[in-house]
Write a structure and sequence with these properties.
elongated; about 425 residues; six-stranded parallel sheet; 3 domains; alpha/beta; Rossmann fold; homodimer; Dihydrodipicolinate Reductase, domain 2; six-stranded mixed sheet; Alpha-Beta Plaits
């Protein structure tokens, strides 16, 4: 057995929000971590191009530098932490570290979701650890739960609220009865949304995280491009209100189902029953529901973003790597998803109930005709509410909950309705209903 | 580096509900586990005194026996799983296995909470692993979350719904407006409560689990006897109803607070706001809220008991042990709580709001006198509701929510009220309010 090492060296690349949070914990909790891990985690280097901005954390002399490549190359650096973000220099540096056999810890979901294959293969080929707990669910230890805590289970289903910006917007729209645009604007002013918000509100960030969760759940690489995505941009306050009248909240849900018919991963605004735990997740919080064949339903909840919460997950990864390196055990590469064929359910094959909102001509027989068209496509109606229209309007809003139907059948029915004369106006709004 | 082993041998002691669940997963998911862990987990022995009862799982020839001691002693058994329960033979066998340096996995909360010191010391002295994920929260990987996922955090607070029997009883009492006794009786008939229910309904099982959580959170041994316990026996349906009128549900909560003033661990029926996630935990489900100094508030939810869910946690522990043994890494003994002094907050020092129900004399001035007595003890009143009494009754129920008050001050005030003449009748009911 190799002799136990007493100190493990860490370099943090990127001294922005998350990087500063990581540095702060490593400096402030050094003794606590050493006591818990039986090995000291020593901060050797913090690298950033900008060394002038005050990050609110005092770094000892000789630690700060601009030269990430030099930090990676140091013999006394065992663990390289990437908190730069994006897929440019971050990818180059992570690959460099892996090729040198260093353990890499990253919070970069985009990098993992878009370059996972290359990263995982490089890690395997070089005997390097690669940890990315903070890439999904902020401080929630959800990847550890999936790959270790629930290792005895086939994962049948995952439902996740994975983007704090979207959840903040939806929560405020509902609680204050506001429209999408002013709430997005307020979120931008409060720092909860980016000036260029499309990564969040168009669902791509959620899709990155869904791809990572699905990969770990099924052991095969699922990439962001494999995820069907709908975001929340321009979601109508009426739908949030009507969903509320029916006993639901609208959440941007990542959904993964893995059964005999294959894997399906999607992101969409989804109606969740008010009594369901996921509907109680408010503001910038995240939650992930995981259903395993033995454990049944589990749920993991916490802050999905923010300096300290994300840093908590990054440091947990550093601790895992440090402890294992110190004790000389080999790493379980098996937990990295492998590239390879996954049985996929054709898109639109999964059945669920749907919420529909039509503008229906305010004339006798229109509703019957709608029901008839849906029925012709095998779609049952569980409930219908005709809402008050504006005075004198030719069309009135009608809200409907369908029975279980495949997305493909629903699309065909909606196309038929749109094509069939003037008894509806504009587009039909449709959202799946969870459960 | 030691050579990697390809197979790890497991003996399961106790072929009851949980043991059979573990055996079932090990036999059915052998290939899945081998693929995920990079090592095969081989079932070598299943031991029980009763070899006749049908457990609904087919065990290969030569595996079943009555001789646990022989199974532990086998050279090809690396991991010993204890699912016998209790502190008699289970303790003897676990100590035997630890002394032989075998890894031990147990679901036995009573054993850990009452004999933790002896077990942890034996494990350390003999270089043996000791895993007990399934002892708290059934299938929820909460101990792994506390000791690994949140390792970067000082744990400030834990609130847990940890006993499915109690939560089932409270959920049914609330949803169906029933009294305690008939619901307990129904729970016993449905198999959700034992014929001798005191371990559950008097709060001791929850206290065992609270002691384990507190030990892992603060790294020092907290024993069951250190936990202040109130159970739910005989809880009054009126209090559940009145709490509901005030916007709360009553839950049996384990509570741990760890701050500058020291550690406090208690178990008590507690009012939880209806909008709080913990109040949404229904029936036999468990949930644990953990607040860390970096991560903020997290919550972990799942089935707290049952064959498959508990087995999921046991097999996760087996997997951790198997993987680490196969790869030759030493274990982090540091995660076992150590015996030693813990700074304790004197009991009753923690402040919280309280729910009170009095039988107050139906006469002018009685409420004022009550308020005066409470005020004299420094207790403010946040709200008061006088309930309808029975017709012609001399006393009417009055329900009150206090401001924040130390339990000691509340007790003194209630004693003064009880001593002070005939303007109240019977005992005052009081429960803390969460948050």
């Amino acid at each position: 057995m190799t002799e136990k090492r007493n100190e493990i060296g860490v370099a943090v690349l990127g001294f922005g929000t998350v990087g500063a949070g990581v540095v702060e914990i490593l400096l402030a909790q050094g003794d606590l971590l050493a006591a818990r891990l039986g090995v000291r985690v020593a901060l050797r280097a913090v690298c950033d191009l900008d060394l002038d901005t005050d990050r609110g954390v005092e770094v000892p002399d000789g630690i700060l530098s601009r030269d990430s490549a030099a930090a990676i190359a140091r013999d006394d650096v065992d663990v390289v932490v990437e908190t730069i973000g994006g897929c440019g220099i971050a990818r180059t540096l992570v690959l460099d570290a892996l090729r040198r056999g260093k353990a890499v810890v990253t919070a970069n979901k985009k990098l993992i979701a878009e370059h996972g294959k290359e990263l995982f293969e490089t890690a395997r080929a070089n005997g390097a650890r690669l940890h990315f707990e903070a890439s999904v669910g902020g401080g929630i230890p959800i990847l550890k739960a999936l790959t270790e805590g629930l290792v005895a289970n086939r994962i049948l289903r995952i439902e996740g609220i994975l983007n704090g910006t979207c959840n903040y917007i939806l929560t405020r729209m509902e609680s204050e009865g506001l429209a999408f645009d002013p709430v997005l604007h307020a979120a931008q002013e409060a720092g909860y949304a980016e000036a260029e918000p499309s990564l969040d509100i168009d669902g791509h960030d959620t899709a990155h995280k869904a791809a990572i969760l699905a990969s770990l759940a099924c052991g095969k690489l699922v990439e962001a491009k494999d995820v069907a995505v709908r975001g929340i941009r321009g979601i109508d306050a009426r739908d949030i209100r009507y969903a509320g009248d029916l006993g639901y909240r609208i959440k941007l849900l990542a959904h993964m189902a893995c059964g005999p018919a294959g894997l399906e991963v999607s992101v969409a605004p989804t109606l969740v029953g008010r009594e369901h735990l996921l509907s109680q997740v408010s503001g910038v919080f995240n939650a992930v529901l995981v259903e395993g064949d033995s454990v049944g339903t589990t749920l993991f909840y916490g802050r999905g973003a923010g300096r300290a919460a994300t840093a908590s997950a990054v440091v947990a990864d550093i601790a895992d790597a440090a402890e294992a390196i110190a004790r000389g055990g080999a790493w379980r590469y098996e937990r990295l998803p492998e590239a390879g064929e996954i049985a996929r359910r054709p898109r639109g094959e999964e059945e669920s109930r749907h919420y529909l909102r039509f503008s229906l001509r305010d004339t006798p027989g229109a509703l019957a005709r709608m029901a008839q068209t849906l029925g012709a496509h095998g779609i049952g109606i569980a409930s219908v509410i005709q809402k008050e229209g504006e005075e004198g309007a030719k069309y009135v809003p009608v809200v409907m909950v369908t029975g279980k139907v495949k997305a493909a059948a629903l699309e065909a029915a909606l196309a038929a309705i749109a094509a069939d004369g003037d008894w509806t106006e504009g587009e039909t709004v449709s959202y799946p209903i969870n459960g």
